[in-house]
Amino acid sequence: MKNIDSLIETAAELKAEGLVEGQIAEELNISRETVTWLLTHGEKRSGIQGPKDVSVDWSSIGKSSIRLRHVSMALTDMIIECLDCNDAEVDVVVGIALSGVPIAGMVAEELGAELAVYTPTKQRWSQEKGVAEFKGIFSSNFSDVSDAECVIIDDVITSGRTLEEAVEELNDHGAVTNAIGVLLDKKGVDDIVGVPVSSLLQIIRVN
C-alpha cells in the first residue's frame, strides 16, 4: 500500500528518469495536478492542501496474465451488456496507452474485434514544454479507426479528460464511440460526453 511519502519518492524518481507529468500520472493512476503537487508542495510539507485524489495500484492484476484475463473477461461482459442495451456494435476496440492497451487487447479478442491504440496528449507534454506543440495520436501499427464502430478501454478514470479527448479524436476520424470500459472510475460517472461508461469498480466520495 502506497502512502504519501512513497508517492512523493516515486514521483521524484520517475521525474528523474525523464518521464513527463502525464506519464507519471499514468504510472501512479493519479491526476496531473496531483503529480505537480507531489513534485513541489509535497516534498516541502508546506501545509498546502493537496488535491483530492486517490492513487490506484492494480499491479497485482497487471503482473499476472491469468488475473488480467479474468478481469478483462468481466469487463467484456459488462460492455456486451451495454452494447446490447443500446443495440450497438463494435468493429474496433481502442486501448488508451499505456495501461489500457493490454486490457483492450483481451477485450478485443473476446469481442472478435480489431485493436487500435491511442496515446493521449497528457503523455506527450510537460509543463516545461507546454501543451500546444503536442497532440494525441493513434498508432499506425494497429487498426485504423476511420468510420468504425468503437469501444474505448482504459484502466482508471480520474478526471475523464483523457477519455473526452479520445472520443473527440474518434469523432474527427468519422468513428462512433458506443461504449467506454474501465477497471475503476474515480469520478463516478455514467457517461462521458454522452458515451456510456462501464466500470468494474467505482469510488464514491461521501464528504
Structure description:
Pfam families: Pribosyltran (PF00156). The protein folds into 2 domains: 4-44; 59-202, Rossmann fold. It is built from 7 helices and 7 strands. The protein has helices at 4-16, 21-28, 32-44, 59-62, 65-85, 100-111, 161-172, and strands at 92-96, 114-119, 137-138, 149-157, 176-185, 191-192, 195-202. The mean pLDDT is 89.
Break the fold down into its secondary structure elements and pairings:
Elements: H1 4-16, H2 21-28, H3 32-44, H4 59-62, H5 65-85, E1 92-96, H6 100-111, E2 114-119, E3 137-138, E4 149-157, H7 161-172, E5 176-185, E6 191-192, E7 195-202
Parallel strand pairs: 1-2, 1-4, 4-5, 5-7
Antiparallel strand pairs: 2-3, 6-7
Helix pairs in contact: 1-3, 2-3, 5-6
Keywords: DNA-binding, Transcription, Transcription regulation
Pfam family, one: Pribosyltran
Domain Phosphoribosyltransferase: 73-187
Structure at a glance:
With 207 residues, this protein is α/β, with parallel strands linked by helices.
The SSE order reads: HHHHHEHEEEHEEE
CATH architecture of the largest domain: 3-Layer(aba) Sandwich
Low-confidence residue ranges: none
- Estimate the strand proportion: 15-25%
What can be said about the biggest beta sheet?
7 strands, mixed
Distance between the termini: 23 Å
Structural class: alpha/beta
Beta-strand segment tally: 7
Major beta sheet, strand line-up = 3-2-1-4-5-7-6
How many structural domains does the protein architecture include?
A: 2
User: What is the averaged pLDDT score?
Assistant: 89
Integer-rounded radius of gyration: 17 Å
- H/I helix tally: 7
Q: Which topology of the largest domain does CATH recognise? A: Rossmann fold
InterPro entries: GfcR-like, PRTase-like, PRTase_dom
Keywords: DNA-binding, Transcription, Transcription regulation
Family: Belongs to the purine/pyrimidine phosphoribosyltransferase family. GfcR subfamily.
Domain Phosphoribosyltransferase: 73-187
